[in-house]
């Protein structure tokens, strides 16, 4: 199964950089760093946007419905004219009507007809589907390369991270489609799929091998993969009771398409994560270390540095809460190092208990600088994350827990204490 890389630690580091530099005197270099940090944080905090595009009747809305696991978008000949429709995660179903130049409004439930009557520039539909926590689906209006509709498609594609161009298998990848797709930026084409739709139709199946052979020869520089899909069969397969027909799901192309979509989305997420890590290590964290001065506690960059810190680092003077924190987590680390059979759940529970204790201590106030009032919320958030990790298996939850402890200690080291701040201001 394709898994998305975690981004929580990097987002926390980016947010810490933005908070620490918010009140500094601005110059061009700092403004550039802050703009990049904000862009990284927003990208890593949001779902990866998957765009569905194609000429009229190519079956893109049906495909988006299939991946969303719900019949949200109208399919086939219909009189409901829709703009860009975004299908995203929401705790409760809702429909948001949006314009580029005025405030949006929201209807409860799925209300596409009511939303369309407002003549919006775009519509966002929120549904409670777990897969949509990682990806959002952008159903672009159908286009034709021989009229002006393709210009709108190109404009809307700038909002997506990856794209699926849907081409009707009856006459796949026509010259008009090539023309439109050639206008798409190369960086988007390199992370996009060509979906050959209607592959379940008998006359398409008879020539599918030949068509796929041709398209695979032509895909270089245009798409990373060519994927045939019989959407109606895929929907039928997943709707079977008491459980889905996984054999049909695989043979009709549903399994392959879902995996390819997740693959391009996770690839984009890893690319964004690598870019953020590069800026953090080369610019943002060194900048924070320079702000803290030579006597400040260094920022451990990863789990290996955390082990070194726990084993030998001395806390800075006049920061009693950090000193207590390091002592508490050092005891956990010693237990982990000395016992080869410690249960992962027990270790995670111990981490959670310590975080809860310090969260309660921070809520009482008086031990950190007033400018660091965001830190108690970080401890509350970490408590929830450590609880969720107890329901996962393997080594990854333990590594994630270590990373969480690293970041919390990092926050306390930066925050200092009110005692230290007062002494600094009075010169004592």
Structure, explained:
The structure is a single chain. The chain has 428 residues and is α/β, with parallel strands linked by helices. Helices cover 54% and strands 12% of the residues. The chain is built from 18 helices and nine strands. The protein has helices at residues 8-21, 28-45, 60-68, 112-117, 149-157, 175-181, 186-189, 202-205, 208-218, 231-239, 246-251, 254-292, 303-312, 320-338, 344-363, 375-389, 396-415, 418-426, and strands at residues 48-54, 84-89, 94-98, 105-108, 122-127, 135-139, 162-168, 192-197, 225-228. Strands 4-3-5-2-6-1-7-8-9 form a nine-stranded mixed beta sheet, sandwiched between helices. A hairpin with a 6-residue loop joins strand 3 and strand 4 (105-108). Helix 14 runs antiparallel to helix 15 (344-363) and helix 14 (320-338) runs antiparallel to helix 17. The chain starts with 7 loop residues before the first helix and ends with a helix. Residues 295-317 and 418-428 have low confidence and may be disordered.
